[in-house]
Amino acid sequence: MTNNDVLKKLRVALRLRDDEIVEILGLVDFKISKSELGALFRNEDHPNYRECGDQILRNFLNGLVLHLRGTKENPLIPGEVLLKMKTQNKPKQIQIKPKPKKQADLSYVKYKNKKKS
Length: 117
Hints:
Number of helices: 5
Number of strands: 0
Distance between the termini: 85 Å
Radius of gyration: 27 Å
Structural class: mainly alpha
Order of helices and strands: HHHHH
């Protein structure tokens, strides 16, 4: 299993978006752009595929610890952080209201194409 596979599996398991991963890496002062991050999640046969190095994975895991547990001065409860993330990422359900049907007035209809006799 490669570092790319580990990163992909963590992303899916924790339901992380690209911008959240960039923020997590920012917690440990590791800067990466969304396009560089996207290259890590591509298939190996893709021309823009980039191998995830040990440094990127190490910094992501350290940032994930800070994200979930917090710091010594400001500790967090990981379960609460995960529940908060779960409720924020929940897609909103759109309710479609049916349009009321208009009833046409058929008392007087004007025909355009009258047959000539």
